[in-house]
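COURSE: Structural Biology Practicum
ASSIGNMENT: Worksheet 4, Part C
STUDENT ID: 0417
INSTRUCTIONS: Below are two proteins. For each, the amino acid sequence is given first, followed by its structure token string. Answer the questions at the end about the second protein only.

PROTEIN I
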Amino acid sequence: QSMNLNTDQRLISQVAYSKALRSQLPPEAFTPDLSKLFILVINLGILILGWMIASYLDRWSNYLLWLYLPLTIIMGNSVIALLFSSHDLMHGSVIRNPKLAYVISFFGLTMLWMPPTLWKSVHNRVHHHQTNDLGDPDRNYLEKQSKTWGKWIHNLFVPSLEVNPFWLIVGMTSAWGVHNFRNLTSVLFFNSKSVDYVPAAFTISAKDRRAIAGEIFLMSVIHLAILVYLEFDPLKLILSYFLPIAIGNAGLMFYIYTNHLLCPMTDVNDPLVNSTSLRVHKFFDLLHLNFSHHTEHHIFPGMNSDYYVQVRELLESNYADKFNLLDAQEAWKLLMQSPRHYKDENTLTDWSGKIMIPCPLNQKVKI
């Protein structure tokens, strides 16, 4: 039976939503979808093809080099698609064999410099179970947290009312790498919850620690092999390696910045309060596996993402007053009009602590 919270704004757990909605969805929404595996392989193929063509760029006339730029953009989108298809794979919605999923996800995440064992820990285990609370590594920093290098870069790069346009551009193309570097060094070098340069430190087992170290080493070897194949040629590297990664990172961060940073912190994992979904053109939903349906994903992490459209319809019918659903442009506008540090659960403040505004998507909820 579906709950209608239009007149009841209490915090409700993710489990309660999934129980209320699952019976209204077809069984095939929860069966593995191999098409995402083909999408992952196709986008790996696009990158490999791009590097093969780039290996001949030194033979092209300077007047014809611009013809490679469309492929640069397509390769950038492939970086985005590789993360989102690997994301679905790691949540178990593509294939059920965990060992095979691990091997495939390693190649899918290599261009993102994201070891699959780290992703499973930081995203599946921690972020999804502690979304936007004190233990979430993906939340805004707290004002009271020390002004470490991690917090300083976050303040410098992330869209906000005080961000410098130049650093915003730098951040869009590199903040994904900063996120990885913070969490990677936190668990590999310290593996302690006392680490203060991440928004929220977490720990992993010794086995996972060894696996992450091995995975990042192998990823480094693959990236080095790509650079060697491209002969360390600056033109080849810029057009087929650095620019596609930068474009891919910018596309990823556009989605990721809106996922939770506009929302209040919650001690109950209520996806309708602590997460945000976007309205984007259907073409982008097709390319990016409905990643704009982020609240929907947090309710059903292991669902075939094709069915998030149906979940959205149910949320709009049953939880219209509580569901954070924004046009992409509006979400970006709100990011640029608000600071990026939590004064408290429902209030954002700037680096200096002088500006304070309610979280743009704050709900008047009863705990």
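PROTEIN II
(use this one for the questions)
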Amino acid sequence: MTDYLKLAEEVGEIARAAGAEILKIYDTEDFGVEMKSDDSPLTKADKAANAVIEAGLKKLAFQAPIVSEEGTKEEMSYATRSQLTRFWLVDPLDGTKEFIKRNGDFTVNIALIESGKPVLGVVFTPVTDELFYSAAGKGAFEVLSPGAKPSRIFAAAFTMKDVNLKVVASRSHLNEETQNFIDRFDRPELVQRGSSLKIMELARGNAHVYPRLAPTMEWDTGAAHAILLEAGGKMVDDTTGKELRYNKEILRNNHFIAYGEVREELLAC
């Protein structure tokens, strides 16, 4: 039987290697920016990181198909994916807009999806060298620098009626619907981050709620979702009211709300 926690640590090293390739391009003047069919940007760094990740995953003793944002059309087809019970879900550079802005808020995301659920997650932040990882039933961890000892992380416990809750918002996507959601709280404090770092703020207990009432894709959330679950949080599909699911025919997420350890039972105490 595969030790998923050990596997997550191995995948973390692959993410670090991809991050090193990203930084090589980050430190140049030519990002090689292209626009994809959905008008989202693609850079040399996205492609370089994807090549490193796919090569690294294929060298592991544990093998599963790879579904990547920058993969081929054939790899992304539902005819193929619908037959899979498990697969790697990869976003080689999450937060490409933040990368282009040079604000550091971009990540490497690698998740293992099994039967529609994220069971292993790795999120690496190249600029700060912070690594987050998790395995189902084994906890969520952060490593603040190479060689440092992993530390267990936990989401913050709270109720939705608490004052001064920290609500995470995107640096690039703060729409009217999101602002209306934030306005429901009693004197909320806004925490602005980019990429999957928004969800990491919940997982490490630095924030409480993240409303994502705008489009995302499954590869944007899979790795961070796995980590948040193991830290004690959840990500609720705003359409179904249930935990976000993966490997749908269309790889676009419904709007969702991510929470730390929300404890509504405390309101009855």
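ANSWER KEY EXCERPT:
Q1: Helices lie at 4-26, 44-59, 73-76, 78-81, 96-101, 176-182, 197-203, 218-231.
Q2: The domain at 4-152 is CATH 3.30.540.10 (Fructose-1,6-Bisphosphatase; Chain A, domain 1).
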